[in-house]
Amino acid sequence: MRKNPAFQHEMLGSVILKVRSGCATSRTLLARELGVSPSTVGLYVDRLIVEGFLNEAGTRQGTMGRPRRLLTTCAEAGWFAGVEFNAERVQAVGVNFSGQTCAAESRPLPAGGTADLVLKEILACAHALSGRMRGPLLSTGLGVPGLVDARAGVGLLYAFIHGWKNIRVSEVIGSVLKVPVILQNNLRAIALAERWFGMGHNLSHYAILGPRSGFGVAMVQDGALVEGFHHAAGEIGRWPWPLGAGMGSNQELHHVLSAPATWRRLTGAGPLVKPPVDLRAALAGCTAARGAAWNEVCVDFARVIGCLQMIADTGVFILHGPLTALGNDFCDDIVSAAYEMMPALSTVPLRLVPSTLGDDAGALGAASLAMEAWSPS
Questions:
Q1: Is the dihedral of CA 367, 368, 373, 375 positive or negative?
Q2: Which of 190, 257, 282, 367 is the most exposed place for a label (fewest CB within 10 A)?
Q3: Model pTM?
Q4: Could you read off the pLDDT of 327-339 as tens digits, one per residue?
Q5: Distance separating alpha carbons of residues 95 and 265, to the nearest angstrom
């Protein structure tokens, strides 16, 4: 075993991630996945078994050779908290060491909520989860809206919460919970939720399309999140709309294609009409009314993802948020409109599918952040 502590720390974490994900369920498969010798892998596995993070039991017969003893993670070794918020609510989940969701918590935020209130509710959710989880809290992940400096653990700016500017979130929350706190933009956290809990498990190139209360995109390229030089990759909700609008136009993409705006367009509700509390259920009722408004919305979405595909060349767009209630027909109509609008897409095929995850996807993604970043000390 190499003596470099940093290498050992990284390798221990990698072994746990490979076993937890199901990519490697034996020492032989681990050695192949990590590109190290079986004897080296064996040293790390033995240590993790002694420390109570891995189990080795049972056998599986392969096509050749001796049966392999199966490696699994110990669910009771500890747990990870995942918390995500927006201007309306704070949502949290507790995930055990094997990556299984065991508890959830949600708290509404009042209109005009402040940064201090949000921080208090994040801590309240974490404490509420702790009473329902087994083992020690190992790490906490936070999905934060707006601009985020993930490395510094700072929420840079979110315009819909008063005072949310340059908030040292990881430091504030970590000082109370006494565990590492990993920060990321909430849509990028959702991208990790797809990797662990959704349809991104075997994908290395995909993008999250997030028309929720605003509109953003999160991209995964070669298995890594795309953050951007200024931490602003995917902030397409601020695009002027329509594209190419002249000087002086104040309308932006999120004004017409966020989930509430789409509901208003499909139902004919006025701009001042407050959307229903259960927007997902309300949108599900719009699927039968496929007419001019539906077609106009699909064309607008087609223009957006067609442009994105020509830039990013991703494998699949995964639709998130309340608009998933519109189903596969909505996604298929958008793709059809995009092909009609942009013949060049025939060389970079476009695919759009609704996510199978629910409203807790952001919290699940935050927990995924914590799982991926944690290693034994």
A1: positive
A2: 282
A3: 0.86
A4: 999 999 999 999 9
A5: 38
CA separation, residue 99 to residues 40, 119, 129, 269, 313 (Å): 26, 25, 15, 42, 30
Q: What is the mean pLDDT of the chain?
A: 91
Contacts of 163 (CB under 8 A, 6+ apart): 114, 115, 116
Tens digits of per-residue pLDDT, 339-373? Answer: 999 999 988 899 999 999 988 999 999 999 999 99
End-to-end C-alpha distance for the chain, whole angstroms = 16
Q: Among candidates 13, 41, 22, 143, which has minimal Cα distance to 90? A: 143
In degrees and rounded to multiples of 5, residue 318 shows phi and psi of -110, 115
Residue-wise pLDDT tens digits, 121-163: 999 999 999 999 999 999 999 999 989 999 999 999 998 899 9
Pair of tokens at residue 21: 């994900």
Helices (H), 35-104: 38-50
CB 153 within 8 A of CB 181: yes
Q: What is the set of domains in the chain, with CATH numbers?
A: 77-193+361-373 (3.30.420.40), 202-354 (3.30.420.40)
Question: What per-residue confidence (pLDDT) applies to 231?
Answer: 86
Supply the DSSP symbol for 201: T
